[in-house]
Specification:
By secondary structure, the protein is mainly alpha-helical. The chain contains 9 helices and no strands.
Length: about 190
């Protein structure tokens, strides 16, 4: 902030927000992300920062419904010129999980497909574990509790291999009951 590096400040605020989420202070995380968003939007590397910030906004939501609303906001504000194929995974994984957790399996599938295309560019990273975690949430939304459990255990092992024990622990925590699928319009 002192040297006027908006991109660096936005990225630092986003990373600090991730820490606040881990510490259980989601409200502070959301405040930091709101501060980061305009800095990122007008920075020279907006296409790399916006997916990261919106993805963290989804994770920082208090309820599954608020997370799904954060997905909708991201979809409405992140335009085609804002997309980086590498960074897209930072938005699409949390979006897939948020959609699955409220029973919107079609939207979850679409976000998961986007995440899979992006993950192909990140071989050998924890993103493969994140994909397994997202697939587990989708399986859970379909009522496949055993498949979900298996995928979460694989995700936990991958996160451990990548040196991310907190993510591994999250994958080993039980998921809430699957949300009912939304009613289709007649």
């Amino acid at each position: 902030a002192e040297i006027g590096a908006a991109a660096g400040e936005a990225h630092s605020l986003q990373r600090l927000a991730e820490l606040r989420v881990r510490q259980g202070d989601r409200a502070e995380a959301r405040r930091l992300l709101q501060e980061a968003l305009p800095l990122a939007r007008w920075s020279p590397i907006a296409m790399h920062l916006l997916q990261r910030i919106h993805g963290t906004m989804i994770v920082a939501a208090d309820t599954p419904q608020e997370a799904r609303a954060a997905v909708e906001r991201a979809e409405a504000t992140v335009g085609p010129e804002d997309h980086c194929y590498f960074c897209q995974i930072m938005l699409s994984v949390p979006a897939a999980i948020a959609c699955a957790d409220v029973g919107d399996v079609e939207a979850a599938r679409i976000h998961l497909q986007t995440a899979e295309r992006s993950a192909a560019l990140w071989q050998g990273t924890a993103w493969q574990a994140a994909l397994l975690e997202a697939r587990a949430h989708l399986a859970h939304a379909h009522g496949d509790l055993e498949g979900s459990r298996r995928l979460l255990e694989q995700a936990a092992e991958c996160f451990e291999t990548a040196g991310q024990p907190l993510d591994a622990a999250r994958c080993r925590a039980p998921l809430p009951a699957p949300a009912p699928a939304p009613a289709e319009a007649s």
